Amino acid sequence: METPVALALLISFLAAAPPALAVDHVVGGAVWSIPPDRDLYRAWADNRTFFVGDNLVFRFEMGFYDVVQVSRREYEDCTADDPYADFHDSPAVVPLDVDGVRYYVCTVGNYCALGVKIYVQTERPN
Length: 126
Description:
This protein has about 130 residues and is α/β, with parallel strands linked by helices. The protein contains 3 helices and 8 strands.
């Protein structure tokens, strides 16, 4: 009698989907810096799917770049008047812990206007 129950439990366990593994996304695929094309980071993000639990990894030369999480308006205006978070140490590992859109800019000089900015859409895993 115990064998059918144990077998049913084993089948249920094996049929369950394995938990999704978090992914570290190295922003831009390399170094967070002034890109040769202002749309490089946008194109990079458009070709990826970001899930809650993943991380963005910003690698940059400390003292010459930073990463600041901002609002959509600040992203569009390349400002950081009221930032949500800022990162000055590299690599900056930013956990994507909620679904929705997140915006990031570099506040050094006019680097944001030169394309050192990105936004990502984070989704809940299925």
